[in-house]
Amino acid sequence: MIIWRDDMPRFCINKNAQPTGEHEVHNLDAGCNHLPNTENQIVLGTFMTCHDAIRKAKDDYPDAKIDGCAYCCPDCHTR
Questions:
Q1: Inside any domain, residue 72
Q2: How far apart, in whole angstroms, are the C-alpha atoms of residue 8 and residue 18?
Q3: How many domains does one find in the chain?
Q4: Does residue 1 sit within a domain?
Q5: Residue 49: inside a domain
Q6: What is the pLDDT of residue 13?
Q7: 41-46 and 65-68: which strand pairing?
Q8: Nearest in space to 18 (alpha carbons), one of 29, 9, 26
């Protein structure tokens, strides 16, 4: 069962990889100063947590290295 609420944050993934190869997931509603430019954002959807957004990104892009942004998704940042 999918739970949806209007106050759930929206997440995106950066089309461009970091120099170390990861594509970062960002919380679009957190006021992050490190968001990719709009043209480099792929919206993943709304999720309860960054962990849910990371799972979606890994499902959508199974061959990509994916990590959470250290600033707006610190609970999901692993590098």
A1: yes
A2: 26
A3: 1
A4: no
A5: yes
A6: 98
A7: unpaired
A8: 26
Name the pLDDT band for 5 (thresholds 50, 70, 90): low
- How far apart are the C-alpha atoms of 24 and 48, rounded to whole Å? 18
Please check whether residue 5 lies inside any domain of the structure: no
What was the pLDDT predicted at 7? 80
Determine the Cα–Cα distance for residues 79 and 73; give it in Å rounded to an integer: 12
Domain with 61 in it: 10-76
The single-letter code of the amino acid at 25 is V
In order, the DSSP letters of the chain are: -----TTSPEEEEESSPPTTSEEEEEETTTT-TTPPPGGGEEEEEE-SSHHHHHHHHHHH-TTSEEEE-TTT-GGG---
Question: Bridge partners of 75?
Answer: none
User: How far is Cα 12 from Cα 42, in angstroms, rounded to an integer?
Assistant: 5
Q: Is the pLDDT of residue 4 over 80?
A: no
